[in-house]
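User: My collaborator sent over this chain with a note saying "see what the structure looks like." That's all I know about it. Can you take a look?
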Amino acid sequence: MRKVSYDMFTKTAIPALFKRHSVKLDPVKYLAAAHVFPMRVNSHVANDLIDWSNVPEDPMFQLAFPQPAMLHEGDLEMMSSATREGVSKVELQSLAEVVRKKLNPHPSHQKEENVPKVEEEEMPGMQHKYRETVLFFPSEGQYCHAFCTYCFRWAQFTSVGSAQTFKSGNSQQLAQYVSRSPQVKDVLFTGGDPMVMPAPVLRSYIDPLIADTGPRHLETIRIGTKSLAWWPYKYLSEPESKDILKLFSDVVQSGRQLAFQAHFSHPRELEHPAAQEAMRLIRMTGAQIRCQAPLIRHVNDDSKIWRDMWNLQTKLGAIPYYMFVERDTGASHYFAVPLERALRIFNAAYSGLAGTARTVRGPSMSASPGKVGIIGDEVIAGERVFVLKFFQARNPSWVGRVFFARYDPHAFWLDGLRPAFGAKEFFYEKEYSEIVSRVNEGSSGQMQI
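Assistant: Without extra context I'll predict from the sequence alone. Here is the result:
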């Protein structure tokens, strides 16, 4: 594979990029959005993935460049005026922070409810929401090869070093925590994107988990990454590409499964030859690639897109895993799709899949109580209802439970739904409140529930 140079573009490059590729776009409005939301685009995205003849509608452009309509009208005007007037960086930052605080920067109470404690001390850079799974945010992996405009962790890339940021550089503390938590079966490295880290740094976090002295009950190491889409050359032509693949092989040779949680939002990302070759090499190490993405208006809110994407993933040896509902954070007013439409898109795409591709679940809301799937729209006892199901939950006994919400074509998220059949609350609500009341004891994944 030929050597490809990684060139990074931030918001300051917007005028030059538009001048080169699309002079019809007003850079001021896009700069206004990029002052509020994080922007990082690289040469692979700009040169190979975006169809500049179709901007601003092009889905890859929508995915990579903060859009003016991601700001509410008054905020867009305020940020655009400040940009045109050339106010200082400090003043721009101050205005941007005012806007960001209105955008629910940490949805699903992840800061308050998910952080584990040992002897009343919080474990930095960890979340332990579900019994079997620990999330770890390595300090060196808290950015990405490029940023997605819909990212639900967008706040971490705009307030680095603030209380908004999850991160830890303590690999030994991670191994020790997992060792003393026999219920934990898998560790998910997340971010940001752990695959921005150099091979030796990534190995420094993984080796303590797979060493002979590491936790024997740990079965799977997962890596949540967009790198196969945003920068597949990480595995092909960089000086450390072979070292990365060797690390993956070492995980598999240790007897654990290495699962890539690959974020593919559109078939175009998968169609690129570099992405397909990177997937082939990763699979040759024995690693498994599971694919997931949220349903995003302006990017992939069409059943044919999902059907084509899931079929191609399966053809390439990957496993379609999840369709997520866009979280209630950031520019959700711009990207979110009503639950009723999300279900129709999922079902239409699912019906066009071969059995080998029907491994996917969704549409799923990663809400505070757990991952809640919308699995049906039915009329029961004369009432039209959404049929809901826990795919994952703070209390493992909720998993698989089916429950019902009143049909609401305008609902976008779990908190916009109401119980069906005259019930005052959903079956889990009282117990969920009790779990939250015990948060000082630790996270729900630690509790004996």
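A starting point for your reply to your collaborator: The chain has a mean pLDDT of 94.
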